[in-house]
């Protein structure tokens, strides 16, 4: 069973902040760094960059601060009794490691704190906390196992992954390379290079593929006309829609609709 004790998200401290627990605590602590920090965990010292996770075991002496400026993190204190997660937690404890999805971890910590504070029925509260904690832990375990690969990740990888999710959910809108590159403050050619290197397909081809996949979904699951689907998928010209659909699917939208 997981018991959530306390926590916080995007907590900010001034440069004078210094946390010291020479005897450790009687429970576990998860820290997700949002700023640089100097950590002493047991007898080891670590200089930790933003977007790292640290899971501190009970009764482990530790301290941390950021001598160079403000310190910020997400944090969660919790205890475990008879948990199936215990062995996995022990395997990643007391060593900082990089994470590639910090906002997802922030979300799960927020949800855990919400469930712990506001879900009134104890049965549902405990089940929800166990489910959310399981997802949080699996993200941490995955990041720990991939920690060496994370060091080799491409610049702007998190931003490009978020952009790709945005594209998938907004195929009706225009997305221009010029505008997306400007958001990252990089050149258009560098943006295209990074996107292709990360996803194995160019930005333009990927977006066309997303539009066609969405069109295929609408053709299969609705009685909308092809003209309506063309417009919903962001095409100003039905001819253009037909051309790109056939280019990706190998057949026209009309033939696709009549397939058994």
From TrEMBL:
Pfam families: AraC_binding (PF02311), HTH_18 (PF12833). GO terms for molecular function: DNA-binding transcription factor activity; sequence-specific DNA binding. InterPro entries: AraC-bd, Homeodomain-like_sf, HTH-like, HTH_AraC, HTH_AraC-typ_CS. It comes from the Bacteria. Keywords: DNA-binding, Transcription, Transcription regulation. The keyword Transport does not apply. The keyword Cell membrane does not apply. PANTHER family: ARAC-FAMILY TRANSCRIPTIONAL REGULATOR (PTHR43280), HTH-TYPE TRANSCRIPTIONAL REGULATOR EXSA (PTHR43280:SF2). This is AraC family transcriptional regulator, arabinose operon regulatory protein. It comes from Anaerosporobacter mobilis DSM 15930.
């Amino acid at each position: 069973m997981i018991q959530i004790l306390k926590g916080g998200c995007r907590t900010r401290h001034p440069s004078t902040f210094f946390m010291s627990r020479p005897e450790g605590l009687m429970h576990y602590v998860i820290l997700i760094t949002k700023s640089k920090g100097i950590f002493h965990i047991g007898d080891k010292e670590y200089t930790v960059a933003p977007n790292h996770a640290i899971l501190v075991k009970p009764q482990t002496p530790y301290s941390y601060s950021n001598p160079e400026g403000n310190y910020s993190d997400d944090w969660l204190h919790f205890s475990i009794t008879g948990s199936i997660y215990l062995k996995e937690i022990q395997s990643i404890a007391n060593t900082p490691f990089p994470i590639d999805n910090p906002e997802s971890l922030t979300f799960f910590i927020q949800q855990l704190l919400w469930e712990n504070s506001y879900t009134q029925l104890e049965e549902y509260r405990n089940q929800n906390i166990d489910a959310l904690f399981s997802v949080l832990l699996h993200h941490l375990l995955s990041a720990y196992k991939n920690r060496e690969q994370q060091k080799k990740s491409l610049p702007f990888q998190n931003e490009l992954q978020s952009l790709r999710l945005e594209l998938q959910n907004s195929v009706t809108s225009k997305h221009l390379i010029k505008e997306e590159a400007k958001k990252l403050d990089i050149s258009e050619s560098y943006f295209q290079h990074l996107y292709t290197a990360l996803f194995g397909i160019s930005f333009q081809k990927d977006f066309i593929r997303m539009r066609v996949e969405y069109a295929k979904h609408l053709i299969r699951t609705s009685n909308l006309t092809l003209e309506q689907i063309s417009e919903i998928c962001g095409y100003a010209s039905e001819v253009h829609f037909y051309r790109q659909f056939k280019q990706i699917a190998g057949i026209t939208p009309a033939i696709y609709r009549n397939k058994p």
